[in-house]
Every structure is written in structure tokens, then in C-alpha cells.
Amino acid sequence: MDLSCPHQPLTRRRTLAAATGLAAGALLPAGPALATAAQYTNPVIWQDFADIDIIRVGDTYYASASTMHYSPGAPVLRSYDLVNWEIAGHSVPVLDFGAKYDLNGARGYVRGIWASSLAYRPSNRTFYWLGQIDFARTYLYTATAVEGPWNRLTTISTPYYDAGLLVDTDDTLYVAYGNTTISVAQLSPDGRNQVRTQEVFRTPSGVGTLEGARFYKINGQYYIFLTRPANGQYILRSSSGPFGPYTMRQVLLELRGPIPGGGVPHQGGLVRTQSGAWYYMAFVDAYPGGRMPALAPVTWTADGWPVVQLVNGAWGTTYPSPAVPTPPRQVTPMTGVDTFDGTTLKPRWEWNHNPDNTKWSAGNGLTLRTATVTHDLYWARNTLTHRIQGPTSTATVQLDHSAMRDGDRAGLALLRDSSAWIGLKRDGGATRVVMVTGLTMDSNWNTTGTGTEIASAPVSGGRIRLRANADIRPGAPRPGTFSYSTDGITFTRLGPAFSMGNDWRFFMGYRFALFNHATQALGGAVRVTRFEVSTP
After folding, report:
1. What is the pTM of this model?
2. Backbone angles phi, psi at 377, to 5 degrees
3. Nearest to residue 417, comparing CAs of 497, 350, 508?
4. What is the pLDDT of residues 441-476, one digit of tens each?
5. Which residues partner with 529 through β-bridges?
6. Region class of 325: left (phi > 0), else alpha (psi between -120 and 50), else beta
């Protein structure tokens, strides 16, 4: 699209394949001068949405994010003001990239959907999602509405690492991609094939790694926006066309971010409002919760380079709200109550790997039939996940467990590479509510611990409420606590606090997770009649 108008030094490529200043920003005033106008607060979304690509189509803003091994993948967020966002759909309906994404003999943890691109092509009124999978090939999906249906348009043999898709003013499709060595590819008019690819820039050794490309045409100039993981952002510019040559300028480096204890805002995209103002949406490493989107205004120098507007030398915690037309409606909240009254899941939900669709159903609650016989939750299919709302939030699930069978395990987890859960164990015809911790994976995402029961209580009847509270403020390991209720009024704490890890290497943050798996034989089921995420 023509936008006319003026951590961790270990790279993702190396991690996944193997298992000094800032730009001179114009300072925005702090204090009373800002307080007189309507403001927004960063992070604009305190949920895990990373590797952001952001566009505007008419009066609507859209953003795409990474989801790794979760399915469906590549969520599309929608906003009318750049501040309030909803999840509208997913660009990748199923991770049909191999049996490991089905938990069938192998696992796809920390693979799958990451650092992909979202674009809109006015000539055919079509949205495009483009991303590479497992360093093997690139996939391109299209839809005429972000809610879907999304369909695979093509597969391209070149893996466009950390790709940025540009729809040029003449309708040509270009892709910027690469790690340290940055290339540009031209696609055929129908987008199905690569016509040409060429190296356009090699990162100077003094800068280090650059990746996470976003590709723009602004005022006739071509720009490739690149991140230095995980503490910097750079931009390349060409006045001679998409294939360069390009010159480089630093946008930010080691910039203090808006989340206490969090990292440097980086790896996002630029977008222009209807009135011509520019904004940069980046993410902030904020584990154990994940990577949180933050928004800052951008101005341009007289010679055509972007400058992030700072507050007291940092990415602002607050800024004046973008001047945009009155939104046509309020967006759908990302938290609240779900009673699973429809036959499909709301887009806030994502499965841990692809589900077995014969083993679940929605409508009058969510029924989860056991889909796997295992003692390892990391191998269990049909575990359904929900992002945790920061800085702290609580998930409460109402569960009908009357159809569980001996050996079944069902409950509510805080799920990551180190996990814990509260739930039900059915053995010998008796049911207990238990708290289990010690579910762990190593750096190659192999299971090293299947969990240890550390607290329990007998329960009777067929219904129970389970609750998990998660503190995902970054900077230190944070507690997750569990409780249960048999009457829906009084909740009883079960077990000690679980310390949620804040290492970045799993990339995705902790999630609330609903699960039901067998340890003896299939056939049991539970029904979730209500799920609620609430904040203090």
C-alpha cells in the first residue's frame, strides 16, 4: 500500500533452528500539558500479541500477530481508534503443516506462526497474510473479510524469513525478508509465484542482527522497517525503487519502555491515520505474560526519516489519543464471560496445537471429550487456551464433571513450558479436586516433568468452579494461585502459589488453559458451562 504523506541478542532464527543510544526524538511535554487532552495508556493491549503488522483500510485498523503452535493461527485484531482492539478472526484456520502440529508422533512447540505479514490489496479488495513455516517454505492466505473464510492461495518454495508484504501503488506485490542479509522478492501479479528475488542490504557488523521486516512506500520512497532483537529498531530507505540501493538509519536503541520491568519496544509496524498522523505499534517483552503491544506517535524529519515521539526520554506511558473519526461501535472486549452458546468458538480462543474436531462441541456449553490417553498434558490434544489479561487477572470456569471416567484428568491450567493446574482426578469411582505443579519442558521442548500432586480435597456432586489468578507483571517470577468452589459463592484456596517463569525462550506467554485428557481409556467428557476472565 502507498502510505503517501509526510533482550535478547540471540536471534529467533538461531533459537528456533537450534531449539548505545536512541534516535533524537522530539520530546512531548509531560504532566499538565498532556493531561488536558484525552489520553491513552500503554500497553494499549495488555495481552500477548507479538511481531505486529498493522494496516489501515478505510476507517478501520487491523493488526496481525504471532501464535507459534496455537491453532487457529495468526489472529487479526481490529480497531477504529488504534487504542481499543478486538480479535476479529485468524488468517490461518488450521496448522496443516505436518503431523507435529496435530500432536501426532511429534510436537510443534515454538514453531508454526511467527513474524508474518498482513496486507490489503485495493484492486481486488482482498486481505493477504504471508508467512514462512519451519524455514522450509512460505504460505500465502487470502480473504475478502478478516473474519474469514481465509483460504490458502499458494505455497512458495522460498522461505521468506520475517517477511513484510508490500502492495505497491502499481499493484505489484513485493516481499522484504531476511536475517542480517535483507532481500526483496517480487511476486507474480496473482501472488502465486516468485518472479524475482535479490539481496538489497547487508547489516553492518557493528549493528548486529536485523530482522522482522515491514515494507512500506511513503512519498514515493521505499522503506524497510527492521528490528534488532530485542532492543532496537532501524529503517532502510531507497529512492531508486524496491530493489534499492538502501541506506540505513537507527530509529531507537535501548529505549526505556512503558511497562515497569519490561523490555524495549520493538518489532512492530507503522500506520498512518485518516488525518495524516503516524503511529508506531511495537511490542514490549513482558514475561511471564508475553509480548504486549504499545503505541507511540511518529513524526518525520524534513529529509524523510521517522522519529518516535518520546516522553522524558522514554516511550511514553501515556500519549494524547489519536484524532480519528468517531468509531461506528464499541469493539468486543477481550475479557469477560463466555457461555459457549454458539456452535463455533469466539476468536479469543486458540487450541494448543490443532484439535481433534470429533472430540469437542460448543452450544449450551463447551463439551470436551477425552482425545488423548497420556499422563503428559503437553501431549494432550484439545487443550483450549485463552490469553491472560495483565497486569493481573482471574479466570473462573464452571465445570460439569459428571461424565468423567476413571483415569480422566480435567481442569484449568496456567500453561507454558513450566505449568501448574487445578482440576479433577477421577479414580476408582471417586473424584478429587487437586492442585498439580511440576509440569516442565526443556529447551528443546521435550517434557521433563509430568506434574506432581501437592494438594487435594474430595468433592461430591457433578459441578465445580475452578479459579486461577495470574500476576503477569514482568521483571521477576510472579505468582499464580488456584482455588475452587462447590457452591459458587465461597472459594477455597488449594495448594501453594505457583511461580510463573519469565524466561523469554518459549516466546509465548502464559495462558489460561482448559483441558480434559485420559490416562486409561477414552470415552469420558466434561462440559464447561461458563468461563470468565476478570480484572481487579
Report:
1. 0.94
2. -60, -30
3. 508
4. 999 999 999 999 999 999 999 999 999 999 999 998
5. none
6. beta
